[in-house]
Amino acid sequence: MDWKKQVVYQIYPRSFQDSNNDGVGDIQGIIQRLDYLQDLGVGVLWLSPIYKSPDKDNGYDISDYYDISEKFGTLEDFKQLLAEAHKRDMRILMDLVVNHTSDQHKWFQESRASKDSPKWDYYIWRDGFEGKAPATQYGYFMESVWTYDEIAGQYYFHNFAVEQPELNWENEELRHEIYKMMRYWLDMGVDGFRMDVINLISKPEAALRNDGGSGAPTENGPRVHEFLQEMRRESLSKYNTITVGETPGVSPEDAAQYANPEGTELDMVFQFELVGAADTLGLSKWHTQKVSLADFKHITERWQKGLHNRAWNSLYLSNHDQPRQVSRFGDTGTALFWEKSAKMLATVMHMQQGTPYVYQGEELGMTNYQINSLDDCRDYEVFSSHKDMVVDKKLLTESEFIAGLNERCRDHARTPVQWNTRKNAGFSEGEPWIPVNPNYVNINAEAQLQDKNSIHNYYKKLIALRKEVDCITDGDFTLLLREDPNLMAYSRKNTDTELLLVANFSNATQKNPLDMQGEVLIANYEAGNLGELRPYEVIVMRRKIA
Ligand code: TEU
What we know:
Oligomer: single chain
Radius of gyration: 23 Å
Number of helices: 16
Largest sheet: 8 strands, parallel
Strand content: 15-25%
Helix content: 25-40%
Distance between the termini: 30 Å
Bound molecules: 1-O-alpha-D-glucopyranosyl-D-fructose
């Protein structure tokens, strides 16, 4: 299978399909929907974590790397899923969360028990500085990165939740434990991994200093490439895999090394510049800011040109940590613009070089839900940042924070997939663990499968085009109409074909200044006057070149 012509579909298992009606999605639910995914045309499935976990961070806090959470099923269910997926020529990527474990993991239990424990050094421990935490650095969830552990009598380091202590990758024995665990899943038939915050595993000394200072970020630390190369040698190189690293704070230069074409580290990485573009403007992700089209364009160009012939891009606007893309970058104001803008955004992403990632429900144009109070939310980050920003520091009022949640909360992505108009959108007969978006009566898979003009059927076309048109995978990239405030345009060119894409990001008709030669490859409106673009219209032209 040439995976560069495939599209990856991300499943967030607890919100995908519940088969036993306990309100939580599960592995048998995924198996029930494999035909749906095969029909969509995706060749690779990435599952967010399904390992044993106390679920402080929805499975990203793993307490046993070798077993499946009873919420999702059993190892036998998982093996059945592998077999059923492989039968349909689909590959399965597991989420690999090895920057940290749960505090319930037996390693942490043994580590904290005593400095003499053989596992003590598996985690990052420091004495306090003058009776306080070693540094005042804040982590991703707006909490101190150091927490005092009564049992150990020391502070441990964590970028994420208090219950997610970070592993000490300097410890060689620990590293080999991880590679062994990877081989266990690969031997079972898993086809690769999406690696959670993998560029955080090597900590720069400045991040851990014990002097009461302000710490430093832990991204792209000094030994990270060495560790990934070792991981490749000890586990991945023995198998035929696909790997993608989640790497906050990477530049195209970093990415070119992580995803180098010699294949010594990873196949591709997720960059955060596009989905994080608005964050740098405000004080935090909860200070609402829209990503500007100018940023959208130049970041796209920077990565498309930056990695061409140097590494492989991953293309995404959505995942389980991001709000719904049509709500964020498109328009949900009218039913028409909702549909057109969802298709437009998909086209802009899928016509680029790299691997597109479709997040569950994106192919239906699922939207954000209405959050009225903290009771509507489930995510750890909501509560930790509410405490920090509203209660402790008073940087935002309650209503400003709720407004921020409505734009950026991770739970928008985590509401159940909307399958049909039956109870709870066909997700579960039981009480879902998180609210169902009430718009499922209008937005659901069953209705869209029957409508040939649906967003779903449009995604199907995009996914099929990638397999047919080589220029989508190998063409070079040129950004056009750089200064236009409403239109985004680019061309892709290989030796025999040129693709020209032009997209209207506004809700008004705009003049199209481009010379539209060739045939229409895909478009989200019926054919019209090529001299103008209707609201959220996108057109891709294809022409043969000598
Ligand atoms: O995310 C890490 C990450 O860098 C962010 O997406 C982060 O969750 C976000 O900025 C918080 O606002 C990964 C997982 O995707 C995420 O679900 C986990 O919570 C996190 O690591 C810890 O495992």
